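May I ask you to comment on the folded chain given beneath this request?
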Amino acid sequence: MKHNKQWLFVQAAAVSMVVLLLALPGICRGAEQNNGKTLIIVYSRTGKSMLVAQTLKTRLAADLLAIKDQKDRSGFLGYCSAGYDAFFDRHTQIEPQTADVSQYEHLIIVSPIWNWKLSTPIHTFLDRHRFDGKQVVMVTTGNNDIRKYEQYDDRAPFLKRFFRDYIRGKSKTVRSAVTAQGGYFLKHYHVETLDASDQEIVARADQHGARIVEDFSVSVAARQQRDAELLRIAGSR
């Protein structure tokens, strides 16, 4: 009986090794297809988010996908409709309606802040696409520096604590929107654009771009180390 158990264990180990060897070419091909490529997905109502996206595109040698809103958002009425739709988490008609992101390992999503939320076109895009296994960085733009409220602790005045907690809740919602679609959320960066010249916006975006390069490289190295360790363990059995 003991001999039979040992034989069954050897057979199972052999089958596992064969499966691993058969899967390795597919794993390698997948790595070659992704090849660390980066795609920037951007919606811009006024052109400022596009300026940020173009700066990041240059810094990271990335591809760029511009999302277009079929609803007219120009002028004061467009501004009002943007805030209204964002507040109620509405969807909108976008172009393109779908996009193939399978060839990319890294995604950078650039969006203006509408009513303390992601813009409606980006919200629509996130709900319609899967990001399985992708590393995702969010870059937002807006007239307010939403990060400044993080400095306040529970001893701060009520209004400052309110905005701190409110923004934290919105950040969690953004993270959840990415992870719910299978993505791995790395970080959120923000570019304040109020009274900023194009040169200032470019400089701020480029600073974030340098950090994003580090974010992606560290994450890739950590994943490669993990995969190498898994292969080592499999080979030692």
Confidence is low (pLDDT under 50) at residues 14-34. Residues 219 and 225 are 10 Å apart (CA to CA).
